[in-house]
Design a protein that fits this description.
The complex is a heterodimer of chains A (162) and B (503).
Chain A (H helix, E strand, L loop, with lengths): L1 H17 L6 E5 L6 E7 L10 E7 L10 E4 L30 H13 L9 H8 L3 H16 L10
Antiparallel strand pairs in A: 1-2, 2-3, 3-4
Chain B lengths: L39 E4 L2 E6 L1 H19 L3 H10 L4 H10 L15 E3 L6 E3 L3 E3 L5 E3 H14 L19 H7 L2 H17 L4 E3 L8 E6 L7 E3 L5 E3 L12 H12 L1 H11 E3 L6 E3 L6 E3 L7 E3 L21 H55 L4 H31 L5 H34 L7 H27 L15
Antiparallel strand pairs in B: 1-2, 2-8, 3-4, 5-6, 7-8, 9-10, 11-12, 13-14
Classes of the chains: A alpha+beta (162), B alpha+beta (503).
Bound molecules: zinc ion (ZN) (6 copies).
Family (chain A): Belongs to the ubiquitin-conjugating enzyme family.
Keywords (chain A): ATP-binding, Nucleotide-binding, Peroxisome biogenesis, Transferase, Ubl conjugation pathway
Organism (chain A): Sesamum indicum (Oriental sesame)
Amino acid sequence: MQASRARLFKEYKEVQREKVADPDIQLVCDDSNIFKWTALIKGPSETPYDGGVFQLAFSVPEQYPLQPPQVRFLTKIFHPNVHFKTGEICLDILKNAWSPAWTLQSVCRAIIALMAHPEPDSPLNCDSGNLLRSGDIRGYQSMARMYTRLAAMPKKGELVFR
Amino acid sequence: MDSDEQDLYYGSGGDVVSEEEDGYYCNDGDAAGDDEPDRTTFTQETTYTILREEDVKKRAENDIAQVSTLLSVSRGLACHLLCRNNWCLNAVYDQWFADAERSDELPPHQESGEQLCGICFEPFEIEDMVSASCVHSFCAGCWKTYISFSINDGPGCLRLQCPEPKCRAVAGVDMVESMASVDEKQKYYGYLYRSYVECNRNRKWCPASGCEFAVEFKDAGGCESYDVTCDCYYKFCWNCIEESHRPVDCKTVEKWIKKNSSEAENTNWILAYTKPCPKCHRAIEKNQGCNHMTCRSPCKHQFCWVCLGPWEKHTSNSTCNTYRNQSSNINEESRERVKHFLARYTHYYERWDSNDKSKKRALTDLNQARNQHIDTLAQTQGENMAGVQFVIDAWTQIVECRRVLKWSYAYGYYHTSKEKPGKLDFFGYLQGEAEAALERLHYCAEKEMSKYLIADRPLEDFKDFKSKLLQLTAVTGNYFQNLVLALENDLSEVDDETSGTKN
Ligand SMILES: [Zn+2]
Ligand SMILES: [Zn+2]
Ligand SMILES: [Zn+2]
Ligand SMILES: [Zn+2]
Ligand SMILES: [Zn+2]
Ligand SMILES: [Zn+2]
């Protein structure tokens, strides 16, 4: 518990410094609970998520960083490795390939990389996975773009990203 | 996306025999332990060795030492390679020379000054930091919790790697030795030696409950018997891990065991012997000959078993035929058919089961003879240990024969039928002869023995008893050998004969 707090505090300070360094990620710690974080990530360019801003919720276990954080999308996203209803993410580093050298920041980076390179063979969203597996890239892209526009585009007056 | 096993070895060296459902299989001609006398048993073309806990440890350590010496790698990397290749030495070597694995071990990298630990993000002097065989250093405290967490998390700790993402450097037994607590080390070695037995296709644990011995089996190809006798005296089939089951094959055993436990048999039973009460629909069992059924309270509905009509309509001069309609008629026929099949199955099952029980009792008696009776006999009858060995031999024969007899009933169920009366008769004849001999032997060992066990002085007729039991043991053994051979040949001798009985 003490170790995880100390480590999260270090990450908090690091995030403050890195904010300028990585303009695509904005990690925020819950005011009252250092084990709850949210992140806003920019959809990578040249993907159907381009122009969208996606919100992630982090729940950090007491055994962190020996155990991985639980992360899910709060913003609806059409992606083979993200559960369409729950936002759950299928990513090896969040499961068996986790290592304590990963940080919340680097997890965000890995998720951005996953958005750009979906893995249709381990789908959590079968519709999306099937489109990609059957080679219907355009079908997948138009669906993903539609949901990006519907759910991840900041509406007028809503300032989500600094 | 969850797979981290791309680096697993699936090559095909000259020693690869097959690559079946659970992955890599190789007929490992392992050299470990060749310099010591093994408790090796030869059964036909087959060799197996019983491994005690200390043998497992010794052999695993031998393999580790051999890999470490031959490839000039650390003990940790040797362990890792063995675990990853299911303790198959040839696979380890093949992979090593095919792979760029060698570059994984780098000389530790020397610098001075301060560095941030990549886990706790605290600064440390370089010389206070630890790395696996790679350039990624972490503080000793973080390594300790990392290793301890992994060991307490399960056998996955055998594949522990450097915490740096994507770095494949092994954090092996060397690091565990220097950083883990005594308990954790013990746990780690427990997993290591267990994997020596569980991950290799040539080794298995003895399935007897409470037995901690392992068996190494070397199938020299086309071996006829998979029978293994563990040092705990349990006899089992290497192939299917069930109790030894000669003369029937593994497939028949599996079918039979499934049948015995299947829900379907239950359903058939209910179908044949019970019917739902037409009023409250609870299953009512017919246990008497009379067709006048009375449901259990509180229903107490009275009905006719045959037509399910209310009983009060069955006056003395109107039988239920009056009520019987076509559909219930068909129902009754299928019920009779099921009953016939069930009766046949029950016939074989009851005999299989009763011999199973006899076998279990005989096994207890064998152990009692071994631990107690032979000492008593040796003392009171003035014999040495070799002189009372015949008692053990008799009980061993009894256990063995009960087991054969038991499985012969599973054979009977699947391989005999009224359509081939010759075969059925011959089977019955051989089985009957063997069974009769066994009953004589069992009686002699059980009943006639007791007199000598309670005697307080040498009895004159002990010599006679001894030669009688010896003879019965031999005779019974012969009968059963004939039975086993005949059934293993599927009674082929009678296939082209008109009459089944022979002498
Ligand atoms: Zn550290
Ligand atoms: Zn490393
Ligand atoms: Zn055993
Ligand atoms: Zn078998
Ligand atoms: Zn009733
Ligand atoms: Zn009736």
